[in-house]
Amino acid sequence: MSAREVLISVLVTAGVLSTGAASAETDYMGHCTGDVTISAENIVAACTVFLTDSYHGNPNWDMPRAMDYQATAYERLGKSDFALAELKTDISKYNWFTPAWEHLGELLEKLKGPGMLEATLDAMLRANPNDADVLNEACWYCAKKGEQLDAALADCDAALQLKPGDADILDSRAFAHFRKGSFAQAIADASAALAKNPKMATSLYVRGLAKLKSGDAAGGNTDVGAAKGIDGKITDTYAAYGVTP
After folding, report:
1. 183 class by beta-carbon count within 10 Å (0-12 exposed, 13-18 middle, 19+ buried)
2. Residue 51 CA from chain centroid, whole number
3. What is the per-residue pLDDT across 102-129, written as a single tens digit (0 to 9) for each?
4. Which of 37, 104, 113 is nearest to 64 (CA)?
5. pLDDT tens digits for 193-219?
6. What is the 3-state secondary structure (H, E, C) of the chain?
């Protein structure tokens, strides 16, 4: 059975539907969090209370996030089946919520082997064929991983067709180009993003790295320094992706 067929069998009862993102966002979720210093049992309990209260009130953007946190807590407890069920419910209710799709793909990859993450991202895109934000997230996710970079660039290109000149999408495509070693294109996309948002630390950082790789030490160090001035943790963020100056 192919990875795609396995994924279909996993999601067959999930009933992935088109739903709109709710507008409100709650400021406080208590112990319903991704904080690993809090016990998984407490997170599950807190998220259950939060979701129950939310279902009886006005739905908000934090509901899919709470379900994702709860799934992570179930994983920490060794309850993969519960985690899978929570993530399937999450994407069935909020198919635009890309972190749940990514989490599901990563978990399926652990449980069922290679190919499941790619198949899950493909399913996410099929469920949201005209959503520029979802296409951008797929592009960004693959760029972070340094994997499927041709597909990442295609997703960013499609997103830009829907949102021409969008700074966030240009930022993602710049990183995908950088990961491919296409430094001139990375610089061009990062510069275009910065023309829209001069304080975008990620584009400054990637443009700086691309300049360094291209032999422009002065320009690269200037951009990297400017990025650090905006986001003091940006070096650590990209180091976690395996990218360093």
Report:
1. buried
2. 22
3. 999 999 999 999 999 989 999 999 999 8
4. 104
5. 999 999 999 999 999 999 999 999 999
6. CCHHHHHHHHHCCCCCCCCCCCCCCCCCCCCCCCCCCCCHHHHHHHHHHHHHHHHCCCCCCHHHHHHHHHHHHHHHCCCHHHHHHHHHHHHHHCCCCHHHHHHHHHHHHHHHCCCHHHHHHHHHHHHCCCCHHHHHHHHHHHHHHCCCHHHHHHHHHHHHHHCCCCHHHHHHHHHHHHHHCCHHHHHHHHHHHHHHCCCCHHHHHHHHHHHHHCCCHHHHHHHHHHHHHHCCCHHHHHHCCCCCC
8 A C-beta contact, residue 206 and residue 190: yes
> What is the C-alpha to C-alpha distance for residues 88 and 95, in angstroms, rounded to an integer?
10
Give the type of residue at 60.
N
- How far, in Å, CA of 186 to CA of 37, rounded? 38
Any residues with CB less than 8 A from the CB of 203 and at least 6 apart, and which? 167, 170, 171, 174, 189, 190, 191, 193, 194, 197
pTM equals 0.79
Query: What does the alpha-carbon distance between residue 64 and residue 221 come to, in Å, rounded to a whole number?
Result: 40
Q: How many CB atoms lie within 10 A of CB 178?
A: 25
- Can you tell me which residue has the tokens 């597909």? 151
Q: What are the φ and ψ backbone dihedral angles of 17, each rounded to 5 degrees?
A: -115, 160
Cα first-last separation, the chain? 42
Distance between CA atoms of 125 and 133, rounded to whole angstroms? 10
